[in-house]
């Protein structure tokens, strides 16, 4: 039953959306999406293995070989302390990837739960969640994190936790909106009439229809978190100094722009590629999921 | 008799709100703003007590802990009074722009903020103008050339622009235009006038990039929405010129949703300015916040946070009011 209803709502969703965008998507090379997936796969590999795959020890200094140009030994050159840039990039993948992953998954879980509840139940639960969302919406999260770092002191995992709390409202808002859109559909009413429990309707009937936009949003949250965490490290309020981290490398190596720019440009490019790939994959996932339906 | 006295004021009120719905709206929003400000100021004040250890330790900074310094701080911040009284004293000071003295420099917080405010404001206005002019322009262009090369390039750039953190964009611009091409200076705020403008160009572009992508995305969507409307088709069928259709039919309607995101854009610029000021060593408010956060200089953190909070709340109020003024449906239809 739910399969039939889901497919009808999906075809409705497809037919109401602009045709111009869809046609362009089809014509656009899938090559870019494959590239994004490959890139993210490589990042994940390095995040899992850490510095095991790094050609050199990322924290070993060599003061007789500072700001070296790229060579066979140091493929991306060295920084102001003679540390191998490539190895530091690889070792920094962990903090650049794991934090955003936790933030994206955490706010996906809590945001979907709260958003679905707010949209489905309405009433007091809804207005309570919406007040919180309004409050969080008005406050820029980077600002909060800078202030918290200034008062309590900076560290990585508390920052990640705060970001989960700050991001949940954004997810919940999206899911709530999508749920409200599903509520008046005939299949919800039909399920209610047949006597399906509320919990079943919420998770097995409505959620699959809400999932595409929620999943796409999660990829956007991931991309945004990469930027915010890197920004904090760049400001010296994220990971402790000396640790290999992309944002911190940008700050440490900024003076080298005139001497050995690769040390600073390489992490910059990696941050952009990671965030952009995630956004593109999110867009693609949205198209795919809403095209084929949940099952 | 009693029925008359009850109905009369209601009728009067309805008349008032009918005649000036905007006035009523603004009054309501102002009340909400006051509540928000009270909440924010309370949170900002509490920062001293949220810091690990007791407030005296937090406020001592690098200074030695002697009975004299402790007594001086206790007197200065009224730490011997009850919590709520401390807040009242702090808040009445804050209303007069008095946030106490900075731990690091020993100068009044407000003096420090005031000396750094002009360059931050200049940077913000510069970036806001860039964002709005370029963003709306590109958005319209992409919508008019939907599906063609110009649109595809713009849409792809929007994805990259939205994903690029401000400070990364700043570093890349710094490298290309200050190091490779030496068109612009790499840091500092210049010596006033045109020199300042020249110094602020790269930072403003870096700051504007992300929000510009956001504006392009929304303008394009709004414009496409309007261009698909029947009245545009009809205007075309009547043989009106493209310029006439663009200016009097599509733009006026497409820009309404764009104005609403103006508030979000300004808020984003304030946060982005923190990063850009640090990257380009511009001695503005954002750099002050980061420096004081690094040094745990609580009075400065409080002062700057309060300032930014007031700014963001006022910007949101202004955006709402402008939205009301611009959209005739809201202006006339809503009671």
What's the structural blueprint in terms of helices and strands?
The complex is a heterodimer of chains A (about 300) and B (about 325).
Chain A: H1 2-16, H2 19-27, H3 31-49, H4 85-121, H5 123-138, H6 141-152, H7 156-182, H8 186-194, H9 198-234, H10 246-253, H11 262-292
Chain B: H1 2-19, H2 21-50, H3 55-60, H4 67-76, H5 83-95, H6 109-144, H7 149-163, H8 166-180, H9 194-227, H10 230-237, H11 242-279, H12 285-295, H13 298-326, H14 328-333
Helix pairs in contact in B: 1-2, 2-13, 6-7, 6-9, 6-11, 7-9, 8-9, 8-11, 9-11, 10-11, 11-12, 11-13, 12-13
List unreliable stretches of 5+ residues of chain A: 1-25
Write out the CATH superfamily name of chain A: MetI-like
Number of helices of chain B: 14
Q: What is the total tally of β strands of chain B?
A: 0
Shape of chain B: globular
Question: What value does the average pLDDT of chain B take?
Answer: 82
> What is the top-level CATH class of the largest domain in chain B?
Mainly Alpha
Helix content of chain A: over 70%
Beta-strand percentage of chain B? under 5%
Radius of gyration over C-alpha positions of chain B, nearest whole angstrom: 25 Å
The first-to-last residue Cα distance of chain A is 12 Å
Secondary structure tally, helices of chain A: 11
SSE string of chain A, helices as H and strands as E? HHHHHHHHHHH
CATH evolutionary superfamily of the largest domain in chain B: MetI-like
Biggest beta sheet attributes of chain A: none
Report on the structure:
The complex is a heterodimer of chains A (295) and B (335). Chain A has one domain: MetI-like fold, CATH 1.10.3720.10. By secondary structure, chain A is mainly α. Chain A is built from 11 helices and no strands. The N terminus of chain A is likely disordered. In chain B, helix 1 packs across helix 2 and helix 6 packs antiparallel against helix 11. Chain B is 80% helix and 0% strand. The N terminus of chain B is likely disordered. Chain B folds into 2 domains: 86 residues; 210 residues, MetI-like (MetI-like fold, Orthogonal Bundle), CATH 1.10.3720.10. With 335 residues, chain B is mainly alpha-helical. The longest helix of chain B is centred in the C-terminal third of the chain and has 38 residues. Chain B has 14 helices and no strands. At the A-B interface, helix 2, helix 6, helix 9 and helix 11 of A face helix 2, helix 7, helix 8, helix 11 and helix 12 of B.
